Amino acid sequence: MIAKKMQQEIANSSAIRAMFLEGKELAEKVGSEHVYDFSLGNPMTPVPEKYNQAIIEAVQQENALELHGYMDNAGYPKTRRAVAENLNQRFDTKFDESNIVMTVGAAGALNVVFKTILDPGDEVLALAPYFGEYRGYVSNHQGTLREVRPDTSTFQPDLTDLEAKITEKTKALIINNPVNPTGVIYSRETIQKIADILEQKQEEYHHEIYLVSDEPYRELVYDGMEVPFLTNYYDNTFVTYSFSKSLSIPGERIGYIAVCPQMADCARTVSGLSVANRILGFVNAPSLMQKALVSSLNERTDVAYYDRNRKLIYEKLTELGFTCVKPQGAFYLFLKSPEPEERKFVEKAKKYHILLVGGSSFSCPGYVRLAYCVSYEMILRSLPAFEKLAEEYREE
Amino acid sequence: MIAKKMQQEIANSSAIRAMFLEGKELAEKVGSEHVYDFSLGNPMTPVPEKYNQAIIEAVQQENALELHGYMDNAGYPKTRRAVAENLNQRFDTKFDESNIVMTVGAAGALNVVFKTILDPGDEVLALAPYFGEYRGYVSNHQGTLREVRPDTSTFQPDLTDLEAKITEKTKALIINNPVNPTGVIYSRETIQKIADILEQKQEEYHHEIYLVSDEPYRELVYDGMEVPFLTNYYDNTFVTYSFSKSLSIPGERIGYIAVCPQMADCARTVSGLSVANRILGFVNAPSLMQKALVSSLNERTDVAYYDRNRKLIYEKLTELGFTCVKPQGAFYLFLKSPEPEERKFVEKAKKYHILLVGGSSFSCPGYVRLAYCVSYEMILRSLPAFEKLAEEYREE
After folding, report:
1. Stated pTM of the model
2. Pairing state of beta strands B144-148 and B123-127?
3. Which among A393, B140, B160, B329 has the fewest CB atoms less than 10 Å away?
């Protein structure tokens, strides 16, 4: 007698869990060193030592009641100020503490934003392929998610389709940059065009259409690529961020929302975010983590490690004849399935102990996601298996 | 153009903020030592030293990627096991780790429970007076909150009204024990009667009616009073807990849900809670806090401090002729307004720099809540002001 909606969610979740258990069983059978698990997007590079030191110092030096206590639902003023100044230095923005709301990770941030802006029946557009959790985040707040199809030759969005999909009901567009699952970075040109389309549609429909940017991978970029900072392109923008990947601390649930100072009704909207943080039961971002962050905003995990993985796996897979757009950020690679049904490709890969996630989970069937946040050694060990997998398709 | 529902929430929130600012202004005008702020329910007794030590040891000794990393959405198995065993020792229950879901505080826990069990239009009953946030927690998930009236002579619930309010649509009853704002503890007899009513109504309507127990004040009890543990009385029970008060760490957002092992469809329901934790954007309870808890489950803040406050303020206020039920737990006292309109009483108290919250915020007009989680010295300083306030009513 649990909620009907949840019964479906549990079924979906069980499917993922079944896959996870299957992997575990496989590891038990053939030995974990012979299983090549590219299915999980979990950070695996070190937590910066300075961050751990900041935690210890906070506990040793600060008043414990203040350190572990309630603060404004938006977060400690000092942390909010530090985040604002850090963004201003890096992206030439003009944030102050009143534009920053500290959150329980980016997942918390997105739910807080959607709670604040969505009326029942409002539509949110997402650019396929996209992180499947967005569907839940939107439906939690009685919104409906609609998809914009990709240009699969580049995995930049199909802007003609974006334009066509915006209706009277469109309240927001959610963007993930760099993109999970493709590793693509939306270029400055793409972002400018998106901003232009949204501006024009706002005028046409006489109401705000928000741009919601989900940026947990902002710091994981390669070859000196630039990730455009969206408040510099479009006023009605929320940037949501998580420190999960940049500091390798996904379990701590710490992130923020940066609200463009030029957003319509900015102050009241920030009040709304703060109230939503409370009502949704987050109340505030974990306090010790907020304190420890202040001195660690420029700390980074070992991004070069992921880059080394990226180069190896991209080079080898393309050599073997697999097709994919070269990832520029995040730690994913989106491979075209050599046969139309990705499910069959995933099954064949499993025969060689390679675990992948089907593109259907990201609303982009015919592809598979490979997460290379794994050890370099595992990638090396997996290469003969990929060779055999490729051979199977050459034979056909 | 933010959500319509949120506009009302922001207005309510602004009223509270206005009160807060008024208090601040008053403190600036007359000096903070002459302002007697009994409006906030913030813990103010020390964080146990052992807990802070556990945090430092975890950071120094554990693998950082594991310490700050993702785990199952329900929490670290070791923490869940420790919580289960601790409850079993104290309450003669039969939990194991599969019955425990670690959450972002009790507020997070309640949202996770409601997301899991509520279909749109389902009703949740609350026993007035109750913590006003429950309204939001229920409506977040398209449920409707209905109130059961209090027996104001004892502030135990009016069980005849409870029985009358249960309908075909009732999915759950939420209980807070000890109660914010009255400080009353629902007795074993009350709980047994509630369980009997729910059992009978379950049979009548052929579906589960869940008991959701919100217990952040469980450890804050006085005079050796017992707080009945609800899974021992009723099978379809969720106990939600927060360490905010027992360890004075409200900013850290750490709590749990304990699911009665005899609950109908128990395993699937726990899966639902775990999935809800993810979908709602909590993902998991903060990881470092989960680790630090394991060795601190029997630690307590200085409960005797609150007890000393309780005795002083209760004794003095009743001496002055004010009426209230003697609190048995939590750190609140619910005073009868000497005039029918509590708003006027709150205003008169403010004249003497005493800040109180009206009972209407707890769906119980004609009363005010006084939070005695303040310094003993402030209570002593406030007594002459209460004397003047009492005099004002004697003159009338």
Report:
1. 0.97
2. parallel
3. B160
